[in-house]
Amino acid sequence: MTLRIARALVVASGLSGLGACHSVETSPLTRGVPLAATQPVAEYRIAAEETLDISVFMVPGLTRTVQVDARGRIDLPLIGSVVAGGRTTRELEADIARQLGAKYVRSPQVTVAVKEGLAQRYAVDGAVAKPGIYVAKGETTLLQAIAQAGGPNEVGNVDDVVVIRDAGGRREAARYSLRAIRTGQEADPPVYGKDAVVVGESATLNTLKFVRDLSSPVLGAARFAIP
Predict the structure, then answer these.
(1) Angle at Cα 225 formed by Cα 221 and Cα 227, nearest 5°?
(2) Quick one: pLDDT at residue 40?
(3) What are the pLDDT digits (tens) for 66-116?
(4) What domains can you pick out in the chain, each with its CATH number?
């Protein structure tokens, strides 16, 4: 589990943009103790590759979903290319409204919302069917996050699930039991953007898998084949 946590920390560092100098509070890993909720330290700024919902009140033809390109720009009807990267949603709303109001729409009311942002992404690693990066859409719980990754795989330990989170520049970690959550013995904790979720491996299930592989004529022969 330690190696998997270390690997997940590397992924989480990429999601949060934090360097390796930040500490990780992993001892002891008290099961079921809630981690600190993440709080934004500054107003969110749009980044390249994010998806935005843009609407103009009473002008449905200008309402659309767009993706910010690698240059940090988006293309909109009438006004063309607009810089979105590095701006807050309010700044982008004001710029779009200014350009539309100059020639095309009288007193436009523009709304910009981040539909899929980099800050909403979390990592699921370890003994799951589909480890990878996922997007938290609305409120996401631990059970939902692991379900997104296809659930624990055949050697996944449902009683050994660690959530790693950045809390004010310091990494914290807590261990949870999916079995206890499913039976109502523990609360289903929220998973936030930039979190890393790691499912441990069961030694017993690993042994059973090894024995099962040995009993397979093909896999057993391949395991002991001499190169």
Answers:
(1) 155
(2) 46
(3) 999 999 999 999 999 999 999 999 999 999 999 999 999 999 999 999 887
(4) 2-41+118-208 (3.10.560.10), 51-116 (3.30.1950.10)
What mean pLDDT comes out for the span 138-161?
92
Average pLDDT across the chain, whole number: 80
Please, which pLDDT band fits residue 227 given cuts at 50, 70 and 90? very low
Query: What DSSP letter does each residue of the chain carry, written as one string?
Result: -HHHHHHHHHHHHHHHT--TTS-EE-SS--BTPPPPPP--SS-----TT-EEEEEETT-GGG-EEEE--TTSEEEETTTEEEE-TT--HHHHHHHHHHHHHHHT-SS--EEEEEEE-GGGEEEEEESBSS-EEEE--SSEEHHHHHHHTTSB-TTEEEEEEEEEEEETTEEEEEEE-HHHHHTTSS---EE-TT-EEEEEEPHHHHHHHHHHHHHSHHHHHHHT---
Q: How confident is the model at residue 143 (pLDDT cuts 50, 70, 90)?
A: very high
Largest CA distance in the chain: 78
Question: Residue 84, CB half-sphere, CA atoms under 13 Å: how many?
Answer: 30
